[in-house]
Amino acid sequence: QVQLVESGGGSVQAGDSLRLSCAASGRTFSTYSMGWFRQAPGKEREFVAGIRWSDGARDYLDSVKGRFTISRDNAKNTLYLQMNSLKPEDTAVYYCAADSRRGVGVLSMSLTYDLWGQGTQVTVTS
How do residues 26-41 score in pLDDT, each as one tens digit? Predict the structure, then answer.
């Protein structure tokens, strides 16, 4: 059973940076499309960033473009989300997601993914 474990969350001030990591078990991480989603209190979960396994294509939520960068290290079975210039509205629980089926689904859709991590809290204060 493949597991996803997020880390790197915390409490920071507006303008600071954080890097989230998502460690995946299993031997076929390089064939997983990966994504980051977030859910703020009282709001629905929303897509933040995704990266496709086949061609490395990336997609981002408009409000994080230019501030967040998704990347992966297949040798380490790890997905990253570098978050710069953080804003209070970025406060949420951040979830890592994986499509382990070698799919080519839409990165921004939660239905694309079949595996989810437990989440890591990011809190940004002004």
Answer: 889 999 999 999 999 9
